[in-house]
Design goal:
The protein has 221 residues and is of the alpha/beta class. Helices cover 36% and strands 27% of the residues. A hairpin with a 5-residue loop joins strand 6 and strand 7.
């Protein structure tokens, strides 16, 4: 791929739009599904939980979330109008049953009151956070005491090998995440890494290691 094609792919991965965005969204769901399920599984969802996802894409995984326990409420936030509409189209039955709600946001401000969510997760979005410390503060505000936040990402060493990540990606490893967490009131409750072989966004098979880091908001906050 040319540099211009790589830049366009990077832009679509950040914020899918147009016909190409729909294609990229389907590809992202396919290549990231193991990461998404890993993040969901490590939330240890309980009955009646309010669950927030940042950057849900087309949210083809919503049925998996809602079958975890009973009386769950899912809230999705996206910076992409296209992805919000795709998610609403795919999950219309859950919206009608008042189990799911989808919203646009600016990628920075979480439009919910304090102590609202039991579980929050995000997969492959941290590379695009423009002000990570501020966003983490927002997440800390809206999560309940004892709530869990899962951040799932591909390790920096693996991401560096992908040619499109030079265009607007901020790469992370565990140490960088730990430094970010130190700026918040969150505590690291666990970390789990997996290795997989997937077809990359440029069509090549790649060997990658991804990690889910689980954070908790202490009871006394």
């Amino acid at each position: 791929m040319t540099n211009e094609e790589l830049k366009e792919l990077a832009a679509q991965l950040r914020k899918p739009s147009g016909a190409k965005g729909t294609e990229v969204a389907g590809m992202m769901n396919e290549t990231n599904i193991r990461m998404t399920l890993h993040s969901i599984d490590r939330l240890h969802i309980q009955d009646h939980d309010h669950i927030l996802e940042l950057g849900h894409g087309n949210c083809a995984h919503l049925s998996y979330i809602l079958q975890q326990k009973s009386n769950l409420a899912y809230y999705g936030l996206e910076i992409s109008e296209l992805m919000k509409e795709e998610a609403k189209h795919i999950n219309q039955r859950f919206i009608e049953n008042k189990k799911a709600r989808f919203y646009l946001y600016d990628g920075q401000h979480i439009p919910f009151p304090g102590n609202y969510f039991d579980r929050i997760f995000t997969v492959n979005t941290i590379y695009f956070w423009t002000d990570p410390e501020s966003l983490m503060s927002e997440l800390y505000h809206v999560i309940k005491p004892n709530g869990k936040l899962n951040i799932t990402f591909v390790q920096q060493d693996m991401m560096k090998a992908l040619p499109f990540t030079q265009f607007g990606f901020t790469l992370y490893n565990n140490k960088k995440i730990e430094h970010l967490v130190e700026t918040t009131g969150f505590k690291i409750a666990g970390s789990d890494s997996r290795r997989e072989v997937v077809k990359s966004k440029t069509g090549h098979l790649v060997d990658r290691v991804f990690t889910t880091i689980t954070l908790e908001k202490p009871e006394n906050n």
